Amino acid sequence: MYFHIDMDYFFAQIEEKRHPIAKGKIIVVCVYSGRTPDSGVVSTVNYAGRQLGIHSGLPIIQAKKLAPPADTLFLPVDKEYYAQVSGYIDAIIRTRCKRVVQASIDEWNAEDDDEGAPEKAKELKDAIKDEAGLVCSIGVAPSLLGAKMASSKSKPDGLLVLDRAGERKLIGASDIEKVPGIGGKTAEALRALGADKVESIGKLSPITLVETFGRKTGAWLHDIGKGDYDGGLGEERGQIEVSRIGTLKEKTRDPYIILAKIEELESEAKEWLMGMKKSYKTLGIIFVTDDLRTHTKSVSFRNPRIWSEEITKDKEALVQEFLAENAHDVRRVGIRFGNFMDLGGQTTLF
DNA sequence: AATGATACTCGGC
DNA sequence: TTACGGCCGAGTATCATT
């Protein structure tokens, strides 16, 4: 059986615990961009705030219009702390499940025996509550997709165990956008083809699906439409790239301002690389223009790199290249390192 | 034509 | 109508190599 463990309103729940004053209040965890005092968006909000229409991605300024100031706490995200809590929960899960893959900072997929699965799920939920003091929702089903949709349906503080029939019923009758992996764009395209429930995707021809969504996604949609929910945990792989992105004080096309910001972000990303003992072979620059579209430019090197000085010219070239082909002002910039190679300790080949 | 590497966009959280 | 972060991996397009 597959298990999906999903922390409820994770960042906001952690902040609730952290600040005694927060009891009973609306907690809005925010990403402040620094452009103006209230520029930025909502990262996570607790259920009290959700009832008022505050949601992830909402501009902070809009959230402030919806929340009564006396009952609301606006707090900046503290990712480092949340990551520590996440590590603690990870250990709780790993001591209890046979196979575990952490899917994000607040989600885990696991696999364990069919026998005693409901009890195991309850044990996990209680352990996370007792040892970390946090509530989560857990779904258990014969497929990972079923487990994910079960946890999401049971939210918050829920536990839902499904058998084959229950899983098929839940997934088949679901609205297409409830399926993890089907976002706004895919849902819109499916609706244009006449499918609104998952089971109605089964009526579409595989050829149409592949033509519209590409080989991989098309085949996958066809499968779930027909009720085939295979696809296991997958391998747990280390992180494959690291990026840092930030918002400029003002939009600009000045390459010096852009490069200065990139360098600031670069040193942060480099610290991560150093800590993880990684070199990299791919360098990318991310640009978000004033129309809020994202663009990327990247280069790969034959040999792994590690010191920043050696990429000075490459950064400049990527920025110039972008400015030459895009007329918009730049609002946010980022840097990305990928294609890692392990560094240090290990004896390398040859 | 097949395979592999790289470049880039999309979208989930 | 405005307002609008910071990550990450998956997937696909494109190019190089055989």
List the helices and strands and how they pair.
Layout (H helix, E strand, L loop, with lengths): L1 E6 L2 H9 L7 E7 L7 E6 L1 H4 L9 H7 L5 E5 L2 H16 L4 E6 L2 E5 L5 H16 L3 E6 L2 H11 L4 E3 L2 H9 L11 H9 L5 H4 L4 H8 L1 H12 L14 E12 L2 H22 L1 E12 L4 E12 L6 H14 L4 E13 L8
Parallel strand pairs: 2-4, 7-8
Antiparallel strand pairs: 1-6, 1-7, 2-3, 5-6, 9-12, 10-11, 10-12
The protein binds a DNA duplex (13 and 18 nucleotides) through strand 2, strand 3, helix 3, helix 8 and helix 11.
Characterization of this structure:
This protein is of the alpha+beta class and 350 residues long. Among the domains are: 9-78, MutS, DNA mismatch repair protein, domain I; 173-235, 5' to 3' exonuclease, C-terminal subdomain (DNA polymerase, domain 1, Orthogonal Bundle), CATH 1.10.150.20; 241-342, DNA polymerase, Y-family, little finger domain (Dna Ligase, domain 1). 40% of the residues lie in helices and 27% in strands. It has helices spanning 10-18, 47-50, 60-66, 79-94, 117-132, 144-154, 164-172, 184-192, 198-201, 206-213, 215-226, 255-276, 312-325; strands spanning 2-7, 26-32, 40-45, 72-76, 99-104, 107-111, 136-141, 159-161, 241-252, 278-289, 294-305, 330-342. The strands form 3 sheets. The chain has a 5-stranded mixed beta sheet. The protein has a 4-stranded antiparallel beta sheet with strand order 9-12-10-11. Strand 5 (99-104) and strand 6 form a beta hairpin. Helix 4 (79-94) packs antiparallel against helix 5 (117-132), helix 6 (144-154) crosses helix 7 (164-172) and helix 10 crosses helix 11. The chain is globular, with a radius of gyration of 23 Å. The two termini are 44 Å apart. The model is unreliable at 346-350 (pLDDT under 50). The protein binds a DNA duplex (13 and 18 nucleotides) through strand 2, strand 3, helix 3, helix 8 and helix 11.
